[in-house]
Amino acid sequence: MSSLHLIKLCVGVSDVDWLERRAAGGAPLVVHTRMTPKRAQEVEEGGSLYWVIKGTVACRQPIREIVTRGEGKASRCEILLEPQVIRTAPLGRRPFQGWRYLDPRDAPADLTSAGVTDLPDDLVRELRDLGAW
Fold first, then answer.
1. Does the pTM of the predicted model rise above 0.90?
2. What is the DSSP string of the chain?
3. Residue-wise pLDDT tens for the chain (133 aa)?
4. What's the angle, vertex CA 125, arms to CA 17 and CA 20, rounded to 5?
């Protein structure tokens, strides 16, 4: 059985390169959210956070741990991500607030060295949307 994933908008980030530069420091990225996933244990068992950048799922980062800090109205959730950015096949996604669960069968495939291309991201996205990629 595959792990459950999360998907979230990567607000204020223009491209995957920014995340890769951030991850190159080797420290885990901590994502702060208000709500703790009720299915956190399923996500922690090998799940990833898929990032939507400018309307496209572009990459993912494996989730190391999900922690709830505080109690009641003062509580918040911290999602600790591995310092590893894995590019994915581009997949269009409409805006949404917060995070959502992402079923493994709906997650875009990872790009391998054979799948990497010099084509512009918008062209790759269009080809994928047309079913030609």
1. no
2. -PPPEEEEE-TT--SHHHHHHHHTT-SPEEEEESSPPTTHHHHHTT-EEEEEETTEEEEEEEEEEEEEESSGGG-EEEEEE-S--EEEEEEE----SSEEEE-GGGSPPBP-TTT--SS-HHHHHHHHHHT--
3. 578 999 999 988 888 999 999 999 899 899 999 999 999 999 999 999 999 999 999 999 999 999 999 888 888 999 999 999 999 998 989 988 889 999 999 999 998 644 555 667 777 667 666 655 5
4. 10
